[in-house]
Design brief:
Blueprint (H helix, E strand, L loop, with lengths): L2 E2 L2 H13 L4 H18 L4 E6 L3 H15 L3 E6 L8 H9 L4 E3 L10 E5 L11 H11 L5 E4 L21 E5 L4 H4 L9 E5 L7 H5 L3 E3 L2 H4 L17 E5 L6 H14 L3 E6 L4 H6 L5 E4 L2 H9 L4 E6 L7 H11 L4 E5 L1 H4 L5 H10 L5 E4 L2 H8 L3 H4 L4 H12 L2 E4 L5 E3 L5 E3 L12 H14 L4 H19 L7 H11 L3 H4 L1
Helix pairs in contact: 2-3, 2-4, 3-4, 9-18, 9-20, 11-12, 18-19, 19-20
């Protein structure tokens, strides 16, 4: 279940299910039952359900009824005017025969579990007044909290916290996760996420056509390189990594080693002559060749066997880097631009867009972190002003005509065709110097083997996160490439080589 839905897409899934003959009240009953099951597994006897005036509150009333039938002492603390309940939520409230208390922070006392059924995923305004007081009280209660669909206060599409949000220990959502479950800071409020089947048929996805996915092997494994018994190193692609001057050669070597571990058959560091000695001394399986300036780089890439190139790691910012990028984009190689290659176009992003638009070669991937992304796109108002990380990366990918990977703990990978993936397996240990250089080499190494840019970027980000988790605490960038064989061994046999 890698599809991620926006709140509007989830509403459409509900609508299609109902149009197909499933009663809306049945969906609410199934949702509340799933919440009661999750709460019951926590073996709590004194439960307070904090219910709001919408369908989320209706789910809460259903959960309360099922928990009470199983012997729990359940109280409903209602926020709002119960007389204003409508539709299925009103029917669910009528079926609840227990007491309904007027909500107040004091109503949470003497409980050992709280069910948060205050707001649904569609919240799009800041929380204030009594609802805010109730969220603050839930968070201060020190008892487990089971959130219905999404912790109250988290926007289900953007993952933004609308002033304040419940810090749940367990979240029960329905049919599919929402993008707000995966994007930060929403993900940090969800605790353990459980996806419940409430009767919505899988067939509705064919009509909704979701374009956002959780980054996982199911997304990209069909395009992942397979080893051919008849293959040889030349058939597995040749990646080129452009090195900077002597003080910053380590970045290129990190990228080059990652490319080899990714499976590229050959990897060459194209190095300025004044850094040739240090690059050669620090490389074994990686080849090193003297390449100075854009004209020599263009000549080097004229050999079409060199089919993938990385520019930017430790490469230096300025006119020389811009010219090298232009030379790479004029070639037929797949191009990955990182770090200094992106910052070099901060004052003239249209030049980069133009060069990418003119190329007849293979794909282009940009891998900025937040600072580099802002420098490159801060003059494009509808990107910089977006309050959704997912949407701003999508906009940027469409503008530049390339796959954009906005790195971070919730890395977003977006394609010009609006497909996007969100990573949720990146541990905090990746916040270390050089880890981005490794990611650049890894993605480009997969492209060298023929993997399409979006799939290569998504696979590279996932493998990068898994490699970091495999190593654990104390990670430094040099450790990442050598963890990849362990990660590969956990993949299906036809992918692991």
């Amino acid at each position: 279940m890698i599809e991620l839905l926006t709140t509007s897409e989830m509403a459409e899934a509900d609508r299609l299910a109902i149009a197909g003959g499933i009663a809306s009240l049945e969906l609410m009953e199934n949702a509340g039952h799933a919440v009661a099951d999750a709460a019951g597994r926590l073996q709590s006897r004194r439960v307070v359900v904090v219910a709001g005036p919408g369908n989320n509150g209706g789910d809460g009333f259903v959960a309360a009824r099922y928990l009470a039938e199983r012997g729990a002492a359940v109280r409903v603390s209602f926020v709002g005017d119960r007389k204003r309940l409508k539709g299925d939520a009103a029917l669910a409230a009528q079926r609840w025969t227990g007491a309904v208390e007027e909500a107040s922070p004091a109503s949470l006392r003497d409980s050992d579990l709280i069910v948060d059924a205050l707001f649904g995923a569609g919240l799009d305004r800041d929380v204030d007044g009594l609802p805010r007081a109730m969220i603050d009280a839930m968070n201060a209660s020190s008892v487990p909290i089971v959130a219905v669909d999404l912790p109250s206060g988290v926007n289900g599409t953007t993952g933004n916290v609308m002033g304040v949000a419940v810090a749940a220990t367990h979240t029960v959502t329905f049919f599919r996760r929402k993008t707000g479950h995966i994007l930060l800071p929403g993900r940090l409020h969800c605790g353990v996420i459980e996806v419940a089947d409430i009767g919505i048929p899988e067939s509705v996805l064919g009509k909704i056509k979701p374009a956002t996915f959780a980054d996982a092997p199911a997304l990209w494994q069909a395009a992942f390189p397979r080893l051919d018994p008849r293959g040889h190193k030349y058939s597995r692609g040749h990646e080129v990594v452009v090195s900077g001057g002597m003080p910053t050669t380590g970045a290129a070597r990190l990228a080059a080693r990652a490319a080899l571990r990714a499976g590229a058959g050959l990897v060459t560091i194209a190095t300025p002559r004044d850094a040739l000695g240090v690059n050669a001394a620090g490389s074994m399986a990686v080849m090193v060749r003297p390449v100075d300036g854009p004209s020599e780089l263009a000549e080097f890439l004229a050999d079409k066997r060199r089919n993938s190139i990385v520019l930017g790691p430790g490469g230096g910012v300025g006119p020389l880097m811009r010219e090298q990028v232009q030379a790479a984009l004029a070639s037929e190689a797949a191009v990955l631009l990182d770090a200094d290659a992106l910052t070099s176009f901060a004052d003239e992003p249209t030049a980069l867009v133009s060069a990418i638009g003119k190329r007849a070669g293979r794909g282009v991937v940009l891998t900025p972190h937040e600072g580099e992304f802002s420098r490159l796109f801060n003059k494009i108002s509808h990107v910089s002003k977006s309050n959704s990380k997912l949407e701003k990366v999508r906009l940027a990918a469409g503008i530049v005509g390339a796959v954009v990977v906005l790195k971070g703990p919730d890395t977003v990978i977006a394609c010009p065709d609006r497909r996007a993936a969100i990573a949720n397996n990146s541990p905090p240990t990746l916040a270390t110097a050089g880890s981005g250089d490794v990611l650049a080499g890894l993605i480009a190494g997969l492209m060298a083997q023929g993997m399409p840019p979006f799939e290569a970027a998504s696979a590279g980000v996932w493998l990068h996160g898994e490699a970091a988790s495999e190593f654990g605490p104390g990670l430094i960038a040099e450790d990442l490439p050598d963890m990849l064989p362990r990660v590969y061994r956990r993949l299906p046999a036809d992918l692991s080589g």
